[in-house]
UniProtKB/TrEMBL annotation:
Listed InterPro entries: IsoCit/isopropylmalate_DH_CS, IsoPropMal-DH-like_dom, Isopropylmalate_DH
Family to which this protein belongs: Belongs to the isocitrate and isopropylmalate dehydrogenases family. LeuB type 1 subfamily.
One of the record's GO molecular function terms: magnesium ion binding
Name this polypeptide is given: 3-isopropylmalate dehydrogenase
A Pfam match: Iso_dh
Length: 349
């Protein structure tokens, strides 16, 4: 039997609150399905930085370095301010960022879009996560008229090919409709590489219907007819922005999980949202994004589809009974972060 490793990195802000609920679900599911998992806690972010001048301790970094080629290992992450998460993603080359965006049958009412209440949304963003503008070369200076600054958008064909292949594989396993989101009408050279690679790679996936769409139009279409879309392939920046748009159309970023994987299958699983300073420390955060990230961890790290689905079903049951503050609605009890964790756990049993 395989031994699995999960490193808990709650971070800061609501990270600690939502990871606490994720951990409870993780332990319960491991016990129920007899999954042999070693779970360890790690400080990351400001707190760790204050203590040691580093975002990760030497011990944590050594452990991650040992596990980074191990497909049976993963990080359950909370949230931090921008700097450390970008460093972690790059350091472990977590280039594939998977972001499912879906409504739950028991909670279709939480979407602000009326049409959604009749048919569920089931979108899947495949986002390139370790290149593009966010990692582009920075320059700045000043002249007589004022300051100037620039940050480069750069993609190498090899970086494009590996994420395109991932997206085609995801589409092949889903409803076989892929939209590549770009801005090739003005950022011509960079997106021509993406388009050329996509067309070449798509030949190996004849069942996948491939389209390309400009990002500004995509933003509008996602609101007008979200149910039409299946897999969206995007560069780092567009994937980031469309994820939050997706959160808006399904009702809350507190519902969105993610998985970021490297070529070996080592992964980091986290809520799409951040530290949420406006609600941190108040037990108001929705832990479902982290609980569903645990489901993704079960699927990708444990290879245990049944465990993943058991968590997703439990979330659906919990949402039919109660809501956290972000989704508060008449007819549903409003519960705290831990209260939602309790409901998911009791639905699991
Ligand atoms: N992966 C990460 O660690 C990550 C991701 C996104 C943002 N951030 C960082 O978080 C900080 C705050 O960023 P922001 O305010 O733009 O984005 P945010 O996602 O933290 O918050 C945006 C809004 O969504 C709400 N929200 C977020 N998660 C929620 C949850 N689980 N339940 C209920 N409501 C939730 C917040 O209350 C807020 O109103 C920044 O420093 C940013 O860089 C970190
Ligand atoms: C915190 C920030 C760097 C991060 C990103 O832009 O990738 C976040 O917004 C996300 O979506 O994971
Ligand atoms: Mg983001």
């Amino acid at each position: 039997m395989s031994r699995y490793h999960v490193l808990l990195m709650p971070g800061e802000g609501i990270g600690t609150e939502i990871v606490a609920e994720g951990e409870r679900v993780l332990r319960a599911i491991a016990e129920r399905y007899k999954i042999d998992v070693d779970i360890s806690q790690h400080l990351v972010g400001e707190e760790q930085f204050k203590q040691s001048g580093r975002y990760l301790s030497v011990e944590t970094e050594t452990l991650c370095d040992e596990l980074k080629t191990n497909p049976n290992a993963g990080i359950l992450f909370g949230a931090v301010a921008d700097e450390p998460i970008g460093i972690l993603r790059k350091h472990y080359d977590l280039f594939t960022n998977l972001r499912p965006i879906r409504t739950f049958s028991a909670a279709a009412d939480v979407s602000p879009l009326c049409s959604v209440r009749e048919r569920e949304i089931d979108l899947y963003i495949v986002r390139e996560l370790v290149s593009g503008i966010y990692y582009g070369q920075m320059r700045h200076g000043s002249d007589a008229a004022g300051r100037w600054a620039g940050q480069e958008l750069y993609y190498h064909e090899t970086e494009v090919r590996r994420i395109v292949q991932q997206a085609l594989q995801v589409a092949q396993q889903r409803r076989k409709r892929l939209h590549f989101v770009h801005k090739g009408n003005v950022i011509k050279d960079v997106f021509q590489i993406w388009l050329d690679v996509l067309h070449a790679e798509a030949r190996r996936f004849p069942q996948v219907e491939c389209h390309d769409i400009l990002v500004d139009n995509m933003a509008m279409q996602m609101v007008l007819k979200p149910q039409y879309f299946d897999v969206l392939l995007a560069c780092n920046t567009f994937g980031d922005i469309l994820s939050d748009l997706g959160a808006g159309i399904v009702g809350s970023i507190g519902l969105l999980p993610s998985a970021s994987l490297n070529a070996h299958g080592f992964g980091l699983f986290e809520s799409v949202g951040g530290t949420a300073p406006d609600i941190a420390g108040q037990q108001k955060a929705n832990p479902i994004s982290t609980i569903l990230s645990v489901a993704m961890l079960c699927r990708h790290t444990f290879g245990h589809e049944m465990a993943a689905q058991a968590i997703e079903n439990a979330v659906n049951i919990a949402l039919s009974q109660c809501r956290t503050a972000d989704l508060a609605a008449e007819g549903y009890e409003t519960v705290s972060t831990a209260g939602m964790g309790d409901r998911v756990l009791s639905a699991l049993h």
